[in-house]
Specification:
Structural class: alpha+beta
CATH superfamily: Lipid/polyisoprenoid-binding, YceI-like
Largest sheet: 8 strands, antiparallel, barrel
Number of helices: 3
Strand content: 35-45%
CATH architecture: Beta Barrel
CATH topology: Lipocalin
Number of domains: 1
CATH class: Mainly Beta
Radius of gyration: 20 Å
Number of strands: 10
Length: 220
């Protein structure tokens, strides 16, 4: 009898740790290997376990940029990105927003422009295959608007950025209780701050970053 009880206790223990381990592998995998501090990953994992985390859906989302040049407006978007956004039912943020973009997934209207932007004078994809955003502050400014502050790492250089955010529920629930949300976020950066100072006489330094992403509540 005691042997059976001990075996049962072992099974319960294994089951209790299996769920968070699986959640960690699933939710945090893109941000491991030293990309993000472990304490921030723990916060994201906690949000996932508590039902506060929304995962970005790549197929129905768009992450891109635009910049003016003397010839035309240059626009680009990325096909490969992952991330999550934490929202609580009380309208406060208790976790992290993280987005990881693969720079080699860039698409533009012109193959010549694409080659130039992916080259060493701009994204330098060969040496910097990823762009990373990690938030450090989320503040509601209205029922469906917020300011998202964090750090953007581009070409190995990390700088603070501030996104203006608008959130929309895609079902009949309030935003923080919704099963699916639409998040639109915009900001601007100076490309020279990230070591991209080529062709300054032709291409403006100010670059608009924009995201329109659908995110689904993570279920453990």
């Amino acid at each position: 009898m005691m042997k059976l009880l001990k075996q049962f206790a072992v099974i319960i223990t294994l089951l209790s740790v299996a769920i968070p381990v699986q959640a960690e592998e699933d939710v945090c995998a893109p941000f491991m290997e030293g990309k993000v501090d472990a304490s921030l990953l723990a916060t994201m994992l906690s949000s996932a376990e508590n039902g506060h985390l929304y995962r970005i859906q790549q197929t129905s989302s768009r992450v891109g940029f635009c910049v003016k040049s003397k010839l035309s407006r240059i626009e680009g978007s990325f096909n490969d990105f992952q991330g999550g956004i934490s929202l609580t039912s009380g309208g406060k943020s208790d976790g992290q927003t993280m987005v990881l973009i693969k720079t080699n997934s860039l698409e533009t209207e012109s193959s010549l422009v694409k080659h130039m932007i992916m080259g060493k004078d701009f994204f330098d994809v060969a040496h910097h295959p990823e762009v990373l955003f990690v938030s450090d502050s989320f503040k509601w400014t209205g029922p469906d608007t917020a300011v998202l502050k964090g750090e953007l790492t581009l070409r190995g250089i990390t700088k603070p950025v501030i996104f203006s955010v608008k959130l929309t529920s895609l079902d009949d629930k309030q935003i923080a209780q919704a099963g699916k949300i639409l998040v639109k976020a915009t900001t601007s950066i100076n490309r020279t701050d990230f070591g991209m100072d080529s062709l300054e006489s032709v291409i403006e330094g100010n670059v608009q970053l924009c995201m329109s992403v659908e995110a689904v509540k993570y279920e453990t």
